[in-house]
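Hi R.,

Here's the chain you asked about this morning:
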Amino acid sequence: MTPRPIMDAGPGLNFFALTKERMLFATVGQRVRATKDLGEMMVVAHAVVAAEAGDEMTVLIDDGGGRRLAALEAQRLDRLRGAGRPVGQMRLISTMTVLRNAAGKRELPDRQSMRDLYTRMRRLDDGLVPLDQTDLMTLPCWSVPREVR
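And here is the predicted structure, written out as tokens:
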């Protein structure tokens, strides 16, 4: 069974319990620039612990700083794997990835349902850009007849 994507950091105490302080202490001193980055850092930390134990992880992060941190850690895991270490992988996705994959399917069958969902999500997430700055309304699935989908 594939582990579910990590969506929220939750308590970080088990991170210490697994003696994975390397990333946490390096990050606190060098990478975390503002308190808002702490949640992303904890999400990445949890994913790294699981990936270092051999799991395949998917992390959903939209924030630029959090995405950079996750990408750096994913590259580090790739290097370890390339050197023969038995580590898993960390895949980075975004809200846009999820919405593009759901577009034209049962969850988001038409442009209006995409517009409605995106509007609700944007009220809750200041990191999402305005809808007209995305490609979500011009995806190829919108021009495919509904029976084919």
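One quick note: Residues 13-93 form one domain.

Cheers,
M.
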